[in-house]
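Forum: Protein Structure Q&A
Topic: Joint prediction for protein chains with partners

I've read a bunch of threads here and the consensus seems to be that you should model interacting components together rather than docking separate models afterwards. I'd like to see that in practice. Below is the full input, 779 residues plus whatever partners are listed. Could one of the regulars post the assembled result?
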Amino acid sequence: MFDAQVVADAWKRALDVWGLVVIAVPLQDPKADALAFIELNTRQVVINPDRIAALDSETSLEAIFAHELGHHLRYPGSLGVQARLEMMERELLPIRGYSLLNLFTDFLINTDLAREKPHLQSQLEKIYRGCKTNAESAKQDPCFCFYLMCFEEAWLLPKYSLSREAGHVIEEDFAGARAEAQLVAQELPNLAPNLFTQFVFFASVFSRYQPYDETKGPNAQQGHGRELNPTAGDHDAPSAGDYADAMRRSSQESEAIRRAIKEGWLRPAQIPDGDASERIRAASLPGVLAGAPKKLAEAMAIHYRRLAEKYLFKPPKERRGGEPLIPSTLSPWDMGDSPKEIDWIATITASGADLGLASPLKRDLLEDEPDDKPRDWTKRLEIYLDVSGSMPDPKASVNPMTLAAQVLAMSALRNGGQVRALIYSTNNLQHWEWTRSEMEMSRFLMNYIGGGTDFPFEVLGHSVRDCGANQPIRVVLTDADFHGNLQVAKHVSRAREAAAAGTFIALLNGATGQDLDWVKTIAATGIRTIPVPDMSGFPQTAAALGEALFGNSGPAPRRTAPPSAPKPAPAKPAPKKAKKP
Amino acid sequence: MKTPKPAFALAPLSEQIRLSALDLSGQTSEAALVGARLMDGLRDRQVPLPAAEEWRQKSGALVVDEWARVEILVRLLRGAEFGPAVAASLLARPERVLSAFPEFVSQAAPLLTIDLLLKSPFRVEEFARKWIHGLGGSIEGETEDESRERMERLDFGGVLKNLKAAETDREVRMKKLKELEAKRLKEEQEAYARAGRE
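Posted by a regular:
Agreed with the consensus. Here's the joint model:
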């Protein structure tokens, strides 16, 4: 462990490097995975004194701290930028599993530090000199050994002074490696200030050096003990929200890609997503392969909620006040005001008969209280979403039907209602507890089954019986397969039962009108049918339906405590026959 | 006895080059004016002028950007800080006037345009090192071998030439990597599908 005073002094000097004043002194943790780590949200730095000692870099503490602060201040600067860089890397690199991002940001920080504070260069060199760089290292992690050669060129150090034997092996194995190292060292800084341009350039050079195990693939090189970069994994990963923000390419990213094609760093064929569609961009999220399936689902759920906002947003209406009926204060009556406004009694009482005649007073009137009726808290929505194989996985791309379900759910929730949902294919998955949480519902809607289409009439039947007199509004989002499901007599009777008990609506993909035979068959059961000729029209239709059923949806409500459970509605005398909309 | 080479301090020389490049960017340097200023500078430093015909031959084809870079060098010759050392080099070998001015920008450093000098400190250093080398000077604090090695490492033209080998290797390697990865992923998917059936 380092002496606390030594750490505090080095920390003070590192803060001075970046012109910072007060940030909590770093912690020491001999069990920490990384040599040093900065949590970008809190700026808390943690160092592993044993790993620093193993690299014989105890005298480099100032440079280590300054480096970690560099992640916070410059590269990537924020986890939002980090998320964008990660997604760009996954889009552009032909082989996944080996990330170049840490090397990239480390390189920029270290070269900046050496240029702006030359005394730190020797400290940084010392850390890299402590790394293993023999022939075996060149095979294990050629990227890192090449990376050391880039530092030799950036700092004009004697060749092989950092890369040593590994540098020789890299030059033998990779033709032109030294020239590429010179290119990276000399050209990368010139591509500032667009960090994405710099990264595309960096990745286009480094992709050649990615380690690859023929049997296990690129992932074989990952993991502790195999990564040679001593400062790998030295800051935290983006959150699901950061990834959701990065779903659409920024103008800087698009500019970086345009330039990469123009300069020949990338071929147009290497860009999987020339028009920046959301299908591929979503595929660049960390997912099952990256061991982060939950993060993928959460990021997509946030993205869906944001997309749904677009359909729910309505410009605020012009405020209409009530009639001015409520008497309030007195004010002087002026020439030009209506004589009817004069309050003679108040005038004479206040000023007397003589003076009052000379300067009468009028009574100001306030507007009547605007209408503020309590909301109807009994609205409930039950969604049945078809996620059969013919529908895209909502996590891999934006599925308009899932988005429509999201819009409907948010419409109901924002108007004080409750929602539960079921997604179905050959099987079904239920979120059958009534909820008032947009977040919970959007997370659930990220599930996907794929396969055939079997509408769960059993579940529908149970729902109708269980809800008794308090039937929810039921909406099924499906296509012509629903008609196929109605070929069984038992299913037809269940559908009739549900339609008779309450409102049951079907949004039908691919239906060009109400007069199609299959649409008529569905409508004959009493289900209200809404044709949606094209899948892309689903969100808009859902927004209109949501408004018709639940009213205008304002911005997301801010709740501090969960609302109380709704009161059951009084029993209906008899179910009415549903009308077609 | 061998005359010692005039020594130049690299960092301040590079900085003067950068500042001049910054000053001259966006301006059009007039050939006649730059030439006249060079001749005046040489006269002031007692350096013999090149023959008019020879000067016309060597400088006649220079383009605007090259004249701007000659102007950068002229400023160094006329300046107080480096003028005496530059003059000492030229006085030792007066024929260097042509090789260190018009020929330098068109032949020794043709790629180092004003734009490039403004973009990268490496290019400014390359320009400075090459010019000092062209003048037959040395760099303070470095041995001749060190200076030569560094100049070679900074040679932008040389880097571009050597990159061709890297480019060829990259194409072959990336194609192979893609094939291997596609094969491996296919095997993984097949194994997954088999496991599902079982």
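Residues 220-225, 558-581 of chain A have pLDDT under 50 and may be disordered.
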